[in-house]
From TrEMBL:
Superkingdom as given in the UniProt entry: Bacteria
InterPro entries: RNaseH_sf, Tc1-like_DDE_dom
Protein name per Swiss-Prot or TrEMBL: IS630 family transposase ISMno21
Ranges where the Tc1-like transposase DDE domain occurs: 3-77
Pfam family, one: DDE_3
Length: 107
């Protein structure tokens, strides 16, 4: 996570400040986490999936291509996950609908 934050920090324009929204994963809040000066971490409240649309993406992947199965090997896991991801990204309208929050926009 430290390497990830450092890499993003390098891409932030001089004088700008970045905000990254995170869920409560352990590595997002580790005591030894080094947050760059041009960066703020905003942790979502627990049990609030309506604020974290990616949870709907993971659920969709599990329900449609990855759930209720036994994988033959680590390589099989990687292959099946890549195949599922490629199917999803080929459907940008699906990604948009999974992330849509009516309360977050106005017509």
């Amino acid at each position: 996570m430290n390497a990830h934050l450092a890499e993003i920090s390098r891409a932030v324009d001089p004088g700008a400040h970045a905000v990254q929204i995170l869920d409560g994963a352990g590595w997002h809040v580790a005591a030894d986490l080094v947050v760059p000066d041009n960066f703020t971490l905003l942790t979502l409240p627990s049990h609030a999936p309506e604020l974290n649309p990616v949870e709907n993406v993971w659920q969709f992947l599990r329900e449609n291509w990855l759930g209720d199965r036994i994988f033959d090997s680590y390589e099989d896991i990687l292959d099946q996950c890549c195949e599922a991801w490629n199917k999803l990204v080929a459907q940008p309208w699906m990604i948009m609908s999974l992330g849509l929050r009516e309360w977050a926009y106005r017509l």
